[in-house]
Every structure is written in C-alpha cells, then in structure tokens.
C-alpha cells in the first residue's frame, strides 16, 4: 500500500504547486515582498514532488521507515503552506459583506486596511519559516540517501451455490417454523453477492414482505432498524401527486421515525410481521450481541418465514442457527475453472481467454494461483488488467511478480490487502486522492454520484479542461473506478451511468488505515475492524492537525433509553464511544480542517463544534443533521473559503442574508429542506455552479419511478445575471420569480434547469420562454412543470424559435394541445418523461419512436390519451426502459417488433386492458417487469408471470420490487 501512500503525499504537493503558481501573480504578494521566497518554496516542492513520483513509479511495497518519515514531512510542509495561503486570502481576499451603516463603512475604510497589513506581515514571516522547513526536508533526503528503490518481486460457480442455498431456504424439511440460514466465510468470498442472488430469485415463492439490511462492524442498531422499518412499511401511494398527504397506518409509523426508541422500532417490526410470511437478509453480522439485539424483530410465526445471515465468524453462524430447522452454509474459495471464468470475464468480458490473447493463458494461471480462489482478489486484479492499454505477457508478468507468494490460509487477509493495494498503485496519480477520499463514508454506505463528484471538484482533486467541467472529469474518474472493479455499482440508469455505488468493506478497511496513517482523512464515531476507536489510530500515527474530518455514527438517544437488556448493552457501548469522541472534539486541533462531513448525525455533538473557527474549511456536508440552528447558519456564512455546502434534509427553513459572504461557494445543496425563498444576497455568489433545492417523491424502492414535489420549489430573486458560473438550477418557482426567469438567458454555462409553476395563465411563462430561446446550445437537462390543467402557459413552447437542440434529458409536466414539433428532432435525447400532457393520437408515439438515441421513456399519468399503445417495427431502436403509469384510456399495450433492446418494463394499471398486453415474446432483451401503484390488478400480474415463464430470458416479474412466483427454472 505504500505506493498509495506516496500518491497521497504527491497529490497534496501537486495541488499546492498549482495554487502557488496562481498565488505568485496575486497583487498582495507583490506588495508584501515575499514573491522571491514563494518562488523558491515552489521550486523546492517541485523537486520533492519529482522524487515522490519516482517512488510511486517504482511501486516498492517495502519502503524503510526513514522514507515514510521523509514523505510525511513533505506532506506536512505542503499542507501548512496551503493553509498559509488560504489563511492570508481569508483575511484580505474577496469583497466582504456590505453593511449599509456607519459601522460597515468604518470596517471597510479603516479596519480592513489595517487587517490587510497585519496579514501581509504574517504571510512574510510564515513563508520564511516554510522555506526553511522545505530546505531542511530536502537536505534530509540527500543526507540519508532516500533514493527510489527498485520494484520488489517474489518468486460450482455462483449458480450452483445459489441452487444449493435455495434448497436450504426451501420448505423441503416439512416444517413451517421460521428458518435461519447462515452463510459463513472469510471476507472477499462473495457472501453478500450470494445472499443477494437468493434474495432476488423468483424461486423463493409466496413472500409477502422482504428486506435487505447490512449490520457492519460498528452495528448502528438504530440506523439498521430504521432501514428495516422503512423497507417493511414503505407505503403504496397514489401515483398522482395531490395537495393532501395520504394518512395511512404505515404513514403514521414512518412519520417521525427518527424520534422513536429501539424497543418501539423492534415492536413495530415484530407486530407487523407476526402474521405475514417474510424473507429478510441480515448482511455482515459480526457478533452474537448484534444478532441478539436484532432477533426480536423477526417473530417465529409458523408460516415458512426465512432469515438469511452472512458472517465471517463461524461461532456467530452456528449460534444464529439454534433450531433444528436452521442451516449453516459454508463458503469456500473458487475452484480453478471457476477462477478462470471469473478472471477472463473481468478482463475480457468472456468466460475464456480470447483467441488473440492465447499467449496470456500461462501467466494468467500464475496470477490466479496467487489469488488463491478469492473472488474479490480475482476481480480486483482483473479490473486493473482490463484497463491496461498493453495486454502483453511482459506487463502481466510484472503484475504477477508484485502479487507476492500464493495465498495461504494464515495470511489470507493480508495477501488480499496487498492485491488490492496493487490496484491503487496502478491508478494514475490524479486518481489516487479521489480514491482515498472514499474512506470518508461509513461501511455499507451507498455513495451517490452527484454529491461525490461535486465534493471531489470542491476539494481541488479534479481540474477542469477545455472539453469538460471539473464535475464531468470527476464523473469519468468514478467510471474508471467502476471499470476497474474498485467500487461496486448499486444503481445504474438506462444509459449505463452508475448513479450509486459502494466500496467493499475489506478495501475500505485497508484504505481507511492508510488515510489515517498519512493524515489524509480522520474519522470519528465508529470502531475500526480491530475494535479500536478511529481516534486511537489517529493519535498513534502522531498527527497533531486534522485536515479532513468525517464524523461517523448517529448521535441518537438510543443510549439514553431505559428498559431492556439490549438498550443497557448499547448504553454502555455508546457512553464509552461518546466519551472518546468528546475528548477529540474538545482537545483536537480543528483549525486546519478543510473538510467536515457529518452525514446523518441526528443529535448535535457535545462539545459543540464551533463552525466559525473552521476558517480554512472548503467542504461542509451536514446532510441529515436536523439539529442545525439559525445561529449555526450565521457562523457557517462567515467561512469565506467554503466551496461546498450541503444542508440537505436538515429542516432548515430559511437562509440568512449573510450567505452572500460565501464568495468561493461552488455548490449549495438545500434539497429536502423547508427553504422556499432565497435571500437577495444569493446573487453575490458569482462562482456558484450548482444551486439545488426542492425534493422528489419516490414510488418504488428502486427509485426508478419518482416525481417532483411541485409545491416545494424555491423562489430565486432578481440578479441572476451576476451568477454567470451557474450550471445547475433545480427546482425554481417560476410564478414568484418572473424577473429572475427572464435573466436565465444570461447564464451561458447553464446545463441543467428545472422550473415549476403552480399558477394559471401564460404571463408567468413568457419571460422563461424568452430565456429558453437563448439557452439552445447549453442546456443538456430540462424539466418543466405546470401544475394546472390549463394549457395557456405551455403553448408558448410550441413556437420556440431556438429550442434546446442538445437536450439529453427532458421532463415535461403540463397540458399541451400537441407535442412540440422540435421534440422529434432532439437527436441526443436519452431520457424523456411526460406527465399530464393529455396528448392524443398514435402519431405521437410514431414521432417519439424515431428518436435515435432514446433509451428511457416514461409515460406517466394522463400523458397519453390514446386507446392503443403500440410499439411497431423500426420504432424505438435503442429503448431500454419503458414506464407506463395509469394511462386512463389504454385498452391495448402491444409490442409489434419495436423496442427490440427493451430490458426493463414498469407498469401501473388502474384496470385490465380490454385487448390485453401482448408481444412480450418479441422483446428478446427483456430482463425485468415491474408492477407498482396503490391498485394492483392481480389477473394482469398473473398473466405477465405466465408469459415471462415461457420467455427465453426468463425475465423476473416484480410487484413493488418483490419477485413473483415462477418456476425454479427461471433462476437458471
């Protein structure tokens, strides 16, 4: 892993060099007389960085302690130099918030010049000190002869496993009791993958309720139970949005779930499942205590319910299976033929070595021998080789040599870590910091693409290029991680883009330890795999400054609840954990923190973190921190270097006028909050690229069917023309922002826009349509929502003189006399969503069917009024996803040779189509049919199951994400 350590240090220096280059041209540098010293500091660091790159290229995994110490010194000099520059800019850079009073005038004309002089003097002193430190570090390298060393060297597949496990889960033993099946094996064998395949298998029949939860080493029981309750009680909502919320018993249970204690959550699950057949997967159970805490949620109701557990601990597996009907399934390493199939599938997307690469077969055998049949190791190495440009025996031999000796049972995990380290080492230097950054997320966390790439950009890990923005470049980095099998996709949309992913826990463990060791990231609140607090690791590494801080674990009231053995156990564990965390927050130096993430921390940490003291912070993510107060917001608005601010799901109701101070802000995320109007000072954020507000409502657990909440858009004040960097605006209220909507056309870089209007009449739309004509070349994603049944407003869309010709995503909600003609000419359109447009005539389907790039078509309620929905031959040549949602007049849904690439069909039907749904057999690529909605026509679902049973692909049929009963053949 030392190569990754090198990359961490190198990445820090690389970022600093770019900043020093920019800083040398600053007017204050010229005035303060330190230009020469900064240039010399830059020269010294460039020489050190060259040495670091040589170390990375050598790939030595056995560096001496002297080399590690020297790299640490280089890194700390670079960090301190960057802090010095940013601290100087904090005091003198940017235009301060202008108070229109005498005190404000005095601050600007008298006090600020004095502050600038003090800052310039301090800068000169600190640069002299940094220059001396850099010189000493450089001399140490020569004194101790720390040269880059030479590279070290050293001389039943899944399907059968699923079928065997299905036998255990089945009812062949004749007992109706709840059965627990434990899958046991060490990390990297694919236990989770196997459990997921069984969970999704249509061969598991007659299940009423399902859930898949992950325990993880830290076992946040509250978060786990909340996830379980949400999956079991997910309400079936009407697919039409209304002004009144549906109040069902399930809604009542889900409302305020974060305030309920653990006994209440356990009781909800147990009571709900008492008379229902259920199937629950509990993934990654680490201790007997964790299972004992969770077990009361699963009643033994004598109706063939099933619980599948995965664990690395044999004792845990056997203890969970305490009844005669329970079973333990032991996983072993792959056989040679299975290993070869997995390896070649990862590298070449083929079960065997292609003819053109036969000379690689021998060395492939050597590589696989060193992987020892471990799926995770095979995928890790295979993913790396798949991305290599030169697939030659010589290059593969180098990889084989670096893998070390064959895996033995005693050294299995250590060897696994080494293999994955090789994957990191193979990354280009600019990718390595992005990869190490993934350790900020807790184990099992589903990482969302959008926030991640925006954080990478704000951290400075990614630079923009002429052909793409920093966020687009960061997206390509994430795609490369997927291609190398470094991260595992969990949600993939129709065009193949990975929207969410996870990091394997073994990778995360090794990555986290190295991040701690190198002071790249510090974690609080969760124990490590070895049972020690993360802070203990950080202190042992000897770091006195925290640069990036991620607070893990939910500060909930669970430890304060009385009653029950489980709560007492959790209370003792929570008290110890909180005491150690409090020590860190009170004694640790947070003045150098540049990133702080406190995702889903329900209660405010004590002692309180003073946001006002985080003067060097760039990234602040407080998603889910509902304790956030107005005072906290005012302190946050004083952080003039802040580049990324997420207040998502915090319950914030308004933003202070001081928000205008955040001149460096690139992303402002206020989604899922109660903010409905932005202060006029928001227009002073001239560098802001992403303004995110509003919220979605989801109708399926897979989140494929979602809807904007029309009454929760945000009002934007006039003055948008001053925000020329904006790329994303979602979701803006047109009705109360007419002037601002007229200024949208002055934003040349706007690529994503979502606007809403809940008032009648065309007057509110006119300025928006004028702006839309000016954005024809920049927009890539456009959502327009008119929450009224009159078509007077949207009719202006029919006469656009310059429509957005490069659109890739288009969502249109509102009544129209006909579909705008320019829609049929959108050759780049990938995703089209229509709702309540009241369109009629099959000519509409003919027009849409000729769109050459369309991959996803969503026809929501009342979008189409025709009686027949026919997909004729040569129409929709690339369509992969189709959603048909409660179209009121549909009597026939037929596939007549069109949509030959369709993979996923999602349906919500209010009544059975009179002429039926047919032509499924003419969809050769179909993989999945999903039914959803508050009304289910059982006969329609049953007929679809029968049709899919005879389909060559055996596509799965889901009902609200639950597989329906089919022949066991369908799982083959």
Automatic annotation (TrEMBL):
InterPro entries referenced in this protein's UniProt entry, alphabetically: Apaf_helical, Disease_R_plants, LRR_dom_sf, LRR_R13L4/SHOC2-like, NB-ARC, P-loop_NTPase, RX-like_CC, Rx_N
Name of the protein in question: NBS-LRR-like resistance protein
Residue ranges of every copy of the Disease resistance R13L4/SHOC-2-like LRR domain listed in the record: 593-956
Provenance organism: Oryza sativa subsp. indica
Keyword entries, A-Z: Coiled coil, Leucine-rich repeat, Nucleotide-binding, Plant defense, Repeat
Entry's family note: Belongs to the disease resistance NB-LRR family.
Disease resistance N-terminal domain boundaries: 12-96
The Disease resistance protein winged helix domain, residue ranges: 440-510
GO biological process per UniProt: defense response to bacterium; innate immune response-activating signaling pathway; plant-type hypersensitive response
An MF annotation (GO) of this entry: ADP binding
Domain NB-ARC: start-end pairs: 177-352
């Amino acid at each position: 892993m030392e190569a990754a350590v090198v990359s961490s240090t190198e990445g820090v220096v690389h970022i600093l060099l770019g900043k020093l280059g920019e800083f040398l041209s600053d007017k204050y540098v010229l005035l303060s007389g330190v230009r020469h010293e900064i240039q010399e500091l830059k020269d010294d660091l460039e020489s050190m960085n060259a040495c670091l790159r040589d170390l990375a290229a050598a790939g030595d995994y056995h560096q001496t302690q002297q080399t590690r110490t020297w790299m640490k010194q280089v890194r700390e000099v670079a960090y301190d130099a960057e802090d010095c520059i940013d601290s100087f800019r904090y005091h003198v850079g940017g235009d301060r918030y202008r108070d229109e009073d005498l005190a404000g005038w005095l601050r600007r004309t008298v006090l600020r010049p004095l502050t600038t002089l003090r800052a310039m003097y301090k800068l000169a002193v600190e640069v002299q000190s940094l220059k001396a430190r850099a010189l000493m570090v450089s001399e140490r390298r020569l004194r101790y002869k720390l040269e880059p060393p030479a590279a070290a060297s050293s001389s039943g597949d899944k399907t059968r496993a699923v079928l065997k496990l299905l036998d255990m889960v089945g009812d062949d033993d004749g007992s109706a009791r709840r059965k627990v099946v434990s899958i046991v094996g060490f990390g990297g064998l694919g236990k989770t993958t196997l459990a997921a395949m069984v969970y999704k298998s249509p061969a598991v029949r007659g299940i009423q309720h399902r859930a898949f939860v992950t325990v993880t080493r830290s076992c946040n029981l509250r978060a786990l139970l909340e996830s379980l309750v949400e999956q079991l009680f997910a309400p079936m909502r009407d697919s039409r949005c209304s002004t009144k919320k549906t109040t069902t018993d399930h809604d009542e249970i889900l409302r305020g779930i974060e305030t309920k204690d653990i006994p209440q959550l356990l009781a909800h699950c147990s009571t709900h499942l008492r008379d229902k057949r259920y199937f629950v997967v509990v993934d990654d159970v680490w201790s007997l205590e964790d299972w004992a805490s969770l077990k009361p949620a699963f009643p033994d109701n004598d109706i063939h319910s099933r619980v599948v557990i995965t664990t690395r601990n044999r004792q845990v597996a056997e203890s969970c299976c305490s009844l005669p009907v329970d079973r333990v399934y032991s996983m072993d390493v792959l056989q040679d033929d299975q290993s070869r199939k997995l390896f070649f599938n990862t590298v070449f997307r083929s079960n065997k070595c292609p003819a053109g690469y036969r000379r690689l077969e021998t060395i492939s055998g050597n590589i696989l021998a060193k992987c020892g049949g471990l799926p995770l190791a095979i995928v890790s190495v295979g993913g790396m080789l798949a991305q290599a440009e030169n697939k030659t025996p010589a290059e593969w031999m180098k990889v084989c040599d670096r893998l070390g000796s064959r895996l033995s049972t005693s050294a299995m995990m250590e060897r696994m870590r080494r293999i994955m380290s090789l994957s990191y080492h193979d990354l280009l230097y600019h990718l390595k910091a992005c990869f190490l950054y993934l350790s900020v997320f807790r184990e099992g966390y589903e990482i969302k693409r959008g926030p991640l790439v925006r954080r990478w950009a704000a951290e400075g890990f990614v630079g923009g290029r002429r052909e793409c923005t920093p966020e687009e470049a960061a997206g390509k980095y994430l795609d490369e991680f997927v291609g190398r099998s470094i991260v595992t996709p969990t949600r993939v949309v129709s065009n193949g883009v990975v929207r969410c992913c996870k990091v394997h826990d073994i990778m995360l463990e090794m990555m986290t330890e190295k991040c701690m060791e190198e002071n790249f990231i510090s974690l609080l609140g969760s124990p490590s795999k070895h049972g020690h607090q993360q802070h203990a690791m950080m202190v042992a590494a000897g770091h006195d400054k925290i640069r990036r801080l991620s607070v893990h674990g939910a500060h909930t009231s669970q430890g304060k609840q009385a009653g029950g053995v489980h709560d007492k156990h959790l209370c003792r564990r929570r008290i110890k954990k909180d005491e150690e965390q409090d020590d860190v927050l009170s004694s640790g130096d947070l003045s150098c923190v540049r990133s702080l993430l406190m995702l889903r921390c329900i209660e405010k940490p004590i002692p309180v973190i003073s946001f006002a003291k985080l003067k060097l912070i760039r990234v602040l993510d407080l998603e889910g921190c509902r304790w956030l107060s107005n005072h906290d917001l005012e302190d946050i608005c004083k952080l003039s270097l802040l580049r990324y601010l997420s207040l998502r799901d915090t319950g914030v109701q308004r933003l202070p006028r001081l928000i205008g101070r955040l001149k460096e802000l690139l992303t402002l995320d206020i989604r899922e909050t109660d903010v409905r109007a932005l202060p006029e000072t928001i227009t002073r954020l001239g560098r802001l690229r992403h303004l995110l507000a509003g919220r979605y409502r989801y109708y399926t657990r897979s989140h494929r069917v979602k809807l904007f909440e029309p009454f929760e858009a945000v009002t934007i004040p006039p003055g948008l023309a001053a925000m020329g960097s904006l790329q994303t605006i979602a979701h803006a209220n047109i009705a109360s922002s007419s002037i601002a909507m007229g200024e949208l056309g002055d934003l040349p870089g706007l690529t994503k826009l979502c606007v809403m209007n809940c008032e009648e009449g065309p007057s509110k739309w006119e300025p928006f349509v004028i702006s839309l004509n000016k954005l024809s070349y920049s927009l890539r994603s456009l959502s327009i929502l008119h929450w009224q049944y009159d078509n007077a407003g949207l009719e202006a869309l029919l006469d656009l003189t310059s429509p957005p010709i490069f659109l890739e995503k288009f969502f249109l909600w509102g009544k129209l006399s006909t579909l705008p003609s320019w829609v049929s000419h959108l050759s780049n359109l990938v995703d089209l969503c229509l709702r309540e447009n009241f369109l009629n005539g099959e000519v509409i389907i003919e027009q849409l069917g000729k769109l050459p790039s369309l991959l996803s078509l969503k026809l929501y309620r009342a979008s189409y009024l025709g009686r027949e929905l026919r997909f004729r031959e040569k129409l929709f040549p690339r369509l992969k996803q189709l959603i048909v949602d409660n179209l009121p007049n549909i009597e026939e849904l037929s596939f007549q040779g069109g949509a030959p690439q369709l993979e996923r069909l999602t349906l919500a039907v209010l009544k059975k189509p009179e002429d039926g749904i047919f032509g499924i057999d003419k969809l050769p690529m179909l993989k999945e049919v999903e039914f959803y909605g508050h009304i289910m026509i059982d006969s329609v679902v049953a007929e679809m199951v029968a049709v899919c049973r005879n389909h060559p692909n055996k596509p799965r049929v889901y009902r609200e994400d639950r597989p329906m009963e089919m022949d066991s053949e369908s799982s083959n």
